C-alpha cells in the first residue's frame, strides 16, 4: 500500500467514526430534502467538512469536490460522498458508506470506501489490487455459481428501464438485489458478495472510488456519462454478468 493510499484509508476510517456517532444519535439530526427521496442531513455536511479539512491538511491543500459543499473539477483533485445511502442511514439501515477518491486527469487512481456500521474498509490504488481493512485481499468467489446481481434504483432512472433490466436478468437465471446505495453495491461486488452492479443517473462522487476498487478486485468495470450531478452510469461485474447485460445496456447507459 502506497503512503498516499494509507493516508486516505486512515482519513476515511476517522470520518467513519464520526459518522457512526451521528448514526447512533440520528434522531437528533436536522434534515432537509434536495428532491424526491433525496435527503441531506447535518451528518452529511459535518462529515464532508471534516474530510475537506483533513484532505487539505494531509495532502498539502489539495482541492476537494463534495456532494454537499461542491468544489471545482480539475486535473488533480479529491472527491467525496460523505454519506452515501442517506435514506438507509436515516432509517437505521446499516447499508451506507463514506466514499473518497483521488482523480487524476479524469480517472480515479485512489479509492476508499468505509462502511462504519459493518466495520469494513475496501480500497485500492490503480495497479495495486484490492485491499480490505488495510491489507491486500482477493475477491471471494466461493459459491460463484449462486448468481446475484445488484441493480440500483433512484427516482431519476425511469422505472420502466429498471424493470426491463431486472426482468432480463431474472429470465437469465440471475437473482437481483437492491441496496439503494452505490458504495454498498460497488463494494459488495468487489468483495464477492454479488457478481456486479448496474445503475444510471449517478454522480461522480457516487462511483469514483468504487469503480476503481471493483477493477482492482478483478471485475470488468465500465462507466461513463457526464460528471455533472446525476449524469453518469455504471456497469461492473464478472464476465458472465457483463455478457448477459450486453443486449440491455442501452437501458443502463441511456
Automatic annotation (TrEMBL):
The UniProt keywords, alphabetically, are: Hydrolase, Magnesium, Metal-binding
InterPro entries given in the database record: Inositol_monoP_metal-BS (IPR020583), Inositol_monophosphatase-like (IPR000760)
Q: Which GO terms describe its molecular function?
A: inositol monophosphate 1-phosphatase activity; metal ion binding
Q: Which GO terms describe its biological process?
A: inositol metabolic process; signal transduction
PROSITE patterns the record matches: IMP_1
**Family that this chain belongs to:** Belongs to the inositol monophosphatase superfamily.
The protein in question is named Myo-inositol-1(Or 4)-monophosphatase
Amino acid at each position: 500500500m502506497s503512503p498516499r493510499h494509507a493516508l486516505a484509508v486512515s482519513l476515511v476510517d476517522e470520518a467513519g467514526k464520526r459518522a457512526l456517532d451521528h448514526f447512533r444519535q440520528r434522531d437528533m439530526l436536522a434534515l432537509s430534502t434536495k428532491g424526491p427521496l433525496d435527503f441531506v442531513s447535518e451528518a452529511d455536511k459535518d462529515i464532508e467538512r471534516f474530510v475537506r479539512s483533513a484532505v487539505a491538511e494531509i495532502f498539502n491543500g489539495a482541492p476537494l469536490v463534495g456532494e454537499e459543499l461542491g468544489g471545482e473539477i480539475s486535473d488533480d483533485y479529491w472527491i467525496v460522498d460523505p454519506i452515501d445511502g442517506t435514506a438507509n442511514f436515516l432509517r437505521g439501515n446499516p447499508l451506507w458508506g463514506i466514499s473518497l477518491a483521488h482523480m487524476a486527469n479524469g480517472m480515479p487512481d485512489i479509492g476508499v470506501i468505509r462502511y462504519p456500521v459493518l466495520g469494513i474498509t475496501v480500497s485500492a490504488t490503480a495497479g495495486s489490487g484490492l485491499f480490505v481493512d488495510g491489507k491486500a485481499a482477493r475477491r471471494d468467489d466461493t459459491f460463484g455459481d449462486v448468481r446475484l446481481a445488484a441493480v440500483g434504483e433512484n427516482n431519476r432512472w425511469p422505472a420502466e428501464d429498471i424493470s426491463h433490466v431486472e426482468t432480463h436478468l431474472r429470465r437469465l437465471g440471475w437473482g437481483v438485489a437492491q441496496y439503494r446505495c452505490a458504495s454498498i453495491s460497488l463494494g459488495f461486488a468487489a468483495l464477492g458478495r454479488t457478481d456486479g452492479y448496474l445503475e444510471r443517473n449517478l454522480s461522480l462522487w457516487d462511483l469514483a472510488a468504487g469503480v476503481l476498487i471493483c477493477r482492482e478486485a478483478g471485475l470488468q468495470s465500465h462507466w461513463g456519462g457526464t460528471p455533472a450531478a446525476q449524469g453518469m452510469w455504471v456497469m461492473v461485474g464478472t464476465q458472465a454478468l457483463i455478457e448477459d447485460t450486453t443486449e440491455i445496456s442501452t437501458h443502463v447507459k441511456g
